[in-house]
Structures are given as structure tokens and as C-alpha cells.
Design goal:
The chain has 436 residues and is α+β, with helices and mostly antiparallel strands. It is built from 13 helices and 21 strands. Strand 12 (261-263) and strand 13 form a beta hairpin. The structure holds glycine and manganese (II) ion (2 copies).
Length: 436
């Protein structure tokens, strides 16, 4: 659990960044209806959660630096005995102050009424620009209200500033408490992947493996996956975001599982690939070991100061060389890299930031240059080779071999920590787990 004092520290830091003449206004995620009165499971907006730890809908955070009556104002739902009988307890305004450390809390219904006064005299409004149409409209109306009172001496804000760059730069660097939670998400994910490997045999359906994953997530306190689980067997292993998961798994198939638990709103994102019958064929093993060697080399390059793109360059080089060695690509390796001949087989990048969002926020480039890695960043390393049968000129013995290997890595002072290092990964480890 992240302590309430850590959220308070983040709010202070954000206020320091925007300066004392600004104001931050950030809405919670809306509750989304599936049909009738049935809702999708509620998931708080990651930015809002990062600053509040508050998990109810219909809430708005306001940060007004140096405001006399308090800097942190939360608008949230009122207590409502009837609704609480149906939907469960709410924090209410008292809880917002006592448990969530708001300086002041007001009913959500008073937001439109109170915002103009909170904005008056502030130079700039910092909020997620253009994300929520209703909210954009509300803020414009509030600004106009302040403008209409200029003769009374009120000063309207002169600028809307997107909050994303400053807030997302903070989110990119994980605290010790966040890393502990992410490790837990990874550890739960480890159990799920191992369980699915052990369960797998020819003749079961992809969704049966998905059920094993979800069972392990949920019984360990991760109610939901961090994204739709990908369970692709045979030709489906070559579809990057395959989520239908409805085909029967055949003897001789490779199975690619890309699945991660979401624990206390933090994501794990792990891929493992294994043979349905527990033994890799010669071709499957050749491709698997090639992807693995590129992943291990990429991981080894991770350390403070290394460029974000180093991992990708290493992966491209090793995969291209390997495809040439296997006779799948023909030509000079440097020329093949130059003309991106690997793209039909490896068409994505080496990974992405990981955190509250599975594809987490944060810039990959600073001005024109790829970013240098720094301690506290967490990201995935996930090379793959996907040989679908429609790539021309590839012998059919390679067809339907799709392999991705994805781990979650933290940059440390000295180098790196692979949070998911315990999940079986070598051919020997995977075959041993599946033999049990
Ligand atoms: N699970 C999506 C990805 O690996 O990026
Ligand atoms: Mn993934
Ligand atoms: Mn990923």
C-alpha cells in the first residue's frame, strides 16, 4: 500500500513544478455503463490516482498553491445512505479530509459553482487538455464566468496548460513503494504463467489457459489483468494483439501468452512462449533461442546513461544475423538492417515504460534525442519473431512460429533488476516446468 503521505509529497512536487500562480484541476475517471444500469468494473484514472489514492468516481482534485484555506481541495460524492445500501460505503467529505488528507472537501455537485472563485487570480490552469470534452466545456464556462466579473476586480486565468508533461515526468520515476507493488504484480503474474504452462496440453482451448491465468491473478488479490490477456496458439502466436483466445490448441503448436496482473492499479506485462506438448521442435527451438539471445543481450545493456534505443538496436542486429544464419533472410547483415529486412518478422519496438498504465506515460525522446536511462525507470524488454505463412519466400517448416519473450526491468544505480527473472524462460526451464 502506498502511504497517504507519499501522495501528499507528489501533490507538493507537482505544485512546485507548475509554480504558485497556477492551479491544477484533474477529474476522476467516469463510471462507464455497459448496458442498462450495469457498469464496467470501475478503474480510476491513473493520473488522478497517482495524486490522490482515491478510487471513487465523480471526483475532482484541485491544487491551488498557497491558498489560505488549504491547497488541496477534493470535490467528491456525498454520503448517501440509500445509495450506500446498494453500492457500498463512500468516503464523503469527512473521509476525504480525514483519510485522504484533503485540506477541504466539497460535494461534487458544487464544483461548477465554486471553480470560478478558485480560478480567479490564477495565471494558468493546468489540466489534461482535450481529453474529456465535457470537462473542457466546464472549465471554459468557469473561465468565462470569471471574465464576466473583471469589473469587480477578478483576474481571469490567461492560459490553459497541458498537465501531461509535468505529471508524466513524475510518474516515469518509480518510488520504492511503487516498485514493491510492481514486484508483487510480477510475482502474481509468475504464478499465473507457470500455472498455464503446466495446464497446457494439445486439445485444450486457448480460453482454458486464459481461465488458468485469471484464476491465479484473482486468488492472489489481482482482481483484473492489466490488459486483455493474449493466448495465441499456432498461427495465432503470430498475431501481435490476438485476444479472441477461442481456438483449440493442437499438438505441435507453439503457444504465446502475453498476460500481466494489475495489482493495486500497477501493471505487470509478461510474455512467455512454449510448446503445447511440452517439447520444442528443432525449428521452434532455433527461433526461440534466437529471440532469447537478443533479449538477454538487450537486458545486459541496460544501465543508467544508456540510450533508450540501445536495446532495440541490439535486438535488430542479433535477430537479423540469426535469420541469416538460419537461411530465412539472405544477404549481407548490415545491408539487411539498413533496409529493415527484419520488419516482416519483427515489426515492433523493444518495449515501453510500465507503471500504472501498461503502456505507461513518459517521454521516450528529449528534444531530438532518445532518452538516457535513469534509476527508477521501469520498462519492458520484449523482442519477438513472428513467421506467419503469408511472408513470401520462407520455407513452410518455419510457418506459424511466433515467439515473444517479455520481461519487466527496473533501472538501478548500478545497472538493472529484472523483476520477472524467476519466470521460467530458457528452453530447459520451460520443458522442465511442463514435464511436472
Ligand atoms: N501486452 C502489450 C504489450 O506487450 O505491449
Ligand atoms: Mn505484453
Ligand atoms: Mn509490453
Amino acid at each position: 500500500m502506498i502511504k497517504m503521505s507519499e501522495y501528499a509529497k507528489r501533490r507538493k512536487e507537482l505544485m512546485r513544478t507548475i509554480g504558485q500562480n497556477g492551479i491544477v484541476i484533474l477529474p476522476s475517471a467516469p463510471e462507464v455503463f455497459r448496458n442498462g444500469d450495469a457498469t464496467y468494473a470501475y478503474r480510476q484514472n491513473s493520473d488522478f490516482y497517482y495524486l490522490t489514492g482515491f478510487e471513487e468516481p465523480d471526483a475532482v482534485l484541485v491544487l491551488a498553491p498557497k491558498r489560505k484555506e488549504g491547497e488541496y481541495i477534493l470535490f467528491n460524492r456525498i454520503r448517501d445512505r440509500d445509495r450506500e445500501i446498494w453500492d457500498g460505503p463512500r468516503a464523503g467529505q469527512e473521509g476525504a479530509v480525514k483519510e485522504y488528507l484533503a485540506d477541504q472537501a466539497f460535494p461534487y455537485s458544487e464544483l461548477a459553482l465554486m471553480l470560478p472563485d478558485l480560478m480567479a487570480g490564477r495565471e494558468s490552469i493546468h489540466y489534461p487538455l482535450g481529453v474529456n470534452r465535457e470537462f473542457d466545456k466546464l472549465l471554459m464556462q468557469c473561465v468565462n464566468k470569471v471574465r464576466s466579473k473583471v469589473r469587480g476586480g477578478l483576474q481571469p486565468p490567461a492560459a490553459f496548460v497541458d498537465i501531461a508533461p509535468s505529471l508524466h515526468e513524475m510518474r516515469l520515476f518509480k518510488s520504492a513503494a511503487e516498485i514493491e507493488i510492481m514486484q508483487k504484480a510480477v510475482d502474481i503474474t509468475e504464478k499465473a504463467h507457470v500455472r498455464a504452462m503446466r495446464f497446457c496440453r494439445p486439445g485444450v482451448y486457448e480460453y482454458e489457459l486464459e481461465a488458468e491465468l485469471l484464476y491465479e491473478f484473482q486468488r492472489n488479490g489481482a482482481r483484473f489483468p492489466a490488459y486483455n490477456s493474449i493466448v495465441g496458439a499456432g498461427r495465432n502466436s503470430c498475431i501481435l494483439h490476438y485476444i479472441n483466445n477461442n481456438q483449440k490448441i493442437a499438438d505441435g503448436d507453439l503457444v504465446l501468452i502475453d498476460a500481466g496482473a494489475e495489482y493495486q492499479n500497477y501493471a505487470a506485462d509478461i510474455t512467455r512462449t512454449f510448446p503445447a506438448n511440452g517439447r520444442f521442435t528443432g525449428e521452434q527451438r532455433a527461433i526461440y533461442d534466437l529471440v532469447l539471445s537478443s533479449q538477454l543481450a538487450a537486458i545486459k545493456s541496460i544501465k543508467p546513461g544508456a540510450s533508450w534505443t540501445t536495446a532495440q538496436n541490439i535486438i535488430v542486429k542479433i535477430l537479423t544475423q540469426g535469420l541469416v544464419d538460419l537461411g530465412i533472410l539472405k544477404g549481407n547483415v548490415d545491408n539487411l538492417i539498413e533496409r529493415q529486412a527484419y520488419l516482416p518478422f519483427y515489426m515492433h519496438r523493444s518495449g515501453h515504460w510500465l507503471g500504472l498504465d501498461v503502456h505507461d506515460v513518459g517521454m521516450y525522446r528529449v528534444e531530438t534525442k532518445w532518452r538516457a536511462l535513469q534509476p527508477g525507470m521501469v520498462f519492458t524488454v520484449e523482442p519477438g519473431i513472428y513467421i506467419s505463412s503469408d511472408i513470401p519466400g520462407v520455407h513452410k517448416r518455419w510457418h506459424h512460429i511466433g515467439v515473444r519473450i517479455e520481461d519487466n526491468v527496473l533501472v538501478t544505480d548500478k545497472g538493472r533488476d529484472v523483476l520477472s527473472h524467476k519466470i521460467p524462460k530458457t528452453v530447459v526451464e520451460i520443458e522442465a516446468v511442463m514435464a511436472k
